[in-house]
Amino acid sequence: xxxxxxxxxxxxxxxxxxxxxxxxxxxxxxxxxxxxxxxxxxxxxxxxxxxxxxxxxxxxxxxxxxxxxxxxxxxxxxxxxxxxxxxxxxxxxxxxxxxxxxxxxxxxxxxxxxxxxxxxxxxxxxxxxxxxxxxxxxxxxxxxxxxxxxxxxxxxxxxxxxxxxxxxxxxxxxxxxxxxxxxxxxxxxxxxxxxxxxxxxxxxxxxxxxxxxxxxxxxxxxxxxxxxxxxxxxxxxxxxxxxxxxxxxxxxxxxxxxxxxxxxxxxxxxxxxxxxxxxxxxxxxxxxx
Length: 289
Known about the structure:
The chain is α/β, with parallel strands linked by helices. The chain has helices at 35-45, 60-65, 70-78, 82-88, 107-112, 115-118, 138-149, 209-214, 226-233, 254-267, 272-288; strands at residues 4-8, 29-30, 33-34, 50-55, 95-100, 123-126, 130-132, 153-158, 168-175, 178-186, 197-205, 240-243, 248-250.
């Protein structure tokens, strides 16, 4: 059973500047929770107990978010707000660790930082930009494949051809109900993309990946690309793909982030009805004008 998760959170968040100049992109709220909390909650539902955050400068807010807040807790107790108290203390029984990535050299380098934490165990990698519908247990489904095959598993989603240059893209074939990856390419041009199956931010990796990351030269954008290491790993072991069946929200860019907030607000029982009225009013005025 996989018990460890690695969450790379060292990125600079340039798409959201100036908001992310001194505040982590991963702490951007989706209604009343930051992106990073959704990622942790998803992992907890899959049985993960130990978390390693690969952090960078200006990421201290993430540590504070998962730490005790004694003064706030006392104020909530005094006010009798025990429901809120439970919400901020829901991670007390989990283990959190933090390693700072010295410089932003890519996802592959961030994963390599996790080697002392992972040791010889398989582990989950979650990119919080890719917010998966909380009602859909993608990690549980991926773990079923890992338990059967004891090999790496990567989450995939079919994207429009116009968007393949934003992702790592795979090609492969389905055998006995399992998608077996045959090749991986980082951010190909549409004209030479091997498929439209994009790697999204959920991985189950084995410790074998570290030896390939350690010897990897910078690839696209001058960064250490995890996709390149996985391509080399294919020579040693099979890698399986799990094609997403639920909803993924791309909260890593402005329009996707706004869409995510709207969809989550429409699902929120506390505010959805009033929010619908607000949207209807705004849209009505928009079309009139």
